[in-house]
Amino acid sequence: MSRFFLLFFIILVVLLAGCATAPSERLVDTCYLRGVSYISVASLARAYGLNWTYDSLSQTVRIAVANRQISLRVGDRFYLLDGQAQELKYPIDIYQGVVVVPYSFKRKVIEPLVKKTAPLAGAVAIKIRKVVVDAGHGGQDPGAISKVGVKEKDINLDIAKRLAALLQQKNISVIMTRNSDRFIPLEKRAEIANFSDADIFVSIHANSNRVRSFKGLEVYCINSKIDNTIRAQLVNNSVPLVRYKDCLLDNSPLLKTIVWDMILTANHVDSLMLAKDICRDARRLLGIDSEVIKEANFQVLRGTFMPGVLVEVGYLSNSEEERLLKNSWYRQQLAEVIMQGIIDYATRPDNGDI
Ligand SMILES: [Zn+2]
After folding, report:
1. Is the Cα dihedral 80, 81, 83, 84 positive or negative?
2. CB 235 within 8 A of CB 168
3. CA distance linking residue 138 with residue 180, whole number of Å
4. What's the 337 CA to ligand 1 centre distance in angstroms?
5. Model confidence at 100: pLDDT above 60
6. Could you tell me the distance, in angstroms and rounded to a whole number, from the CA of residue 123 to the centre of ligand 1?
7. What's the rounded Cα separation, in Å, for the pair 314 and 322?
8. Is 83 left (phi over 0), alpha (psi -120 to 50) or beta?
9. How confident is the model at residue 233 (pLDDT cuts 50, 70, 90)?
10. What spacing in Å lies between the alpha carbon of 12 and ligand 1's midpoint?
11. Distance 85 CA to ligand 1 centre (A)
12. Which residues are within 8 A (CB) of 18 and not within 5 positions of it... i.e. 6 or more apart?
């Protein structure tokens, strides 16, 4: 009988030891469960430099944030902040042996607590350190041309340069896919972005339509129906997982594809938030019509593997907007709207539920 207990004890120890190491550095960074984006506690803690522990017996995570204690239990729809229960919209979960929290937990709980102890500029830096600004068209490709001969490529480059300067003033680094009147193929633009280790991709364009009454700013996000698994397989061998390499157990193509799939899924959510923030600021700061368009299938967005949007700043085919786009003051206003949208996206604590 005592042998049986000894064996049982050994098995229990082995099992517990196995469980205890499970939530540490593992594959999962982000995942999608029942239609909701989740992020692993490990990567959340790593991103903000937080100390955390996991008790496998009670399946409880404890995170220390700025002298506050957060306690989470797998399966619960609430968390404890300094012992006080706070409601959660979605439950804490486990995915592939890793404790994951709803993505909104990061924005609604962790970020506000971190921000209270850091100046605003620091908070911006956490989410957005580097932006790829892509001025559409260029060189032999003029893009749209207005009735009086205004070329889209020139409008795009001017606004892109103004946006880059504004972002740099906020201590955000900028990579421009072009900073002169040059033709850059779409694949090259995506490649520049993918190898830049940037946080977001913003492409600047001006619109045109045979219906000359069309006007307003539109922000396009990639169509969420585009299969991320296929995109992940395509990107797998061509793009380095610079930022996510410490999440990988090895370099197997299958694991990389899974990680890319998760990253691309989370990127959809982030792109939509960014698009909404830019549109909101266009209405708020410039008083112009603006719309988020979710069904885009632009090659440059499909090929970039970070949250990204394509901003159509206005219609060159509309005489009123053509006149405005020719005005440098107005182009500066548009650059400021896009910059403010990026800052809002980077700092807004309450936009996690999409
Ligand atoms: Zn264009």
Report:
1. negative
2. no
3. 8
4. 19
5. yes
6. 33
7. 8
8. left
9. low
10. 62
11. 50
12. none
For the segment 178-194, the average pLDDT, to the nearest whole number, is 91
Beta strand 30-33 with 36-40 is: antiparallel
Amino acid in the structure at residue 50: L
- For the chain, which domains are there? 20-117 (3.30.457.10), 121-347 (3.40.630.40)
At 26 the pLDDT is: 41
How far does residue 131's CA lie from ligand 1's centre (Å)? Answer: 19
* 35 backbone φψ class: left, alpha, beta (φ>0; ψ -120 to 50): left
| Across 3-17, 61-75, 330-344, least confident range | 3-17
At 315 the pLDDT is: 95
Q: Which is nearest to 111 in space by CA: 273, 254, 240? A: 273
- pLDDT at residue number 332: 96
Percentage of residues in the chain having pLDDT higher than 70: 75
Cα 126 to ligand 1 centre (Å) = 31
Is the pLDDT reported for residue 280 higher than 90?
yes
Residue with tokens 């929290």: 101
C-alpha of residue 203 to centroid of ligand 1, in Å:
9
Q: How confident is the model at residue 266 (pLDDT cuts 50, 70, 90)?
A: confident
Arithmetic mean of pLDDT over the chain: 80
Q: How far is the CA of 157 from the centre of ligand 1 (A)?
A: 11
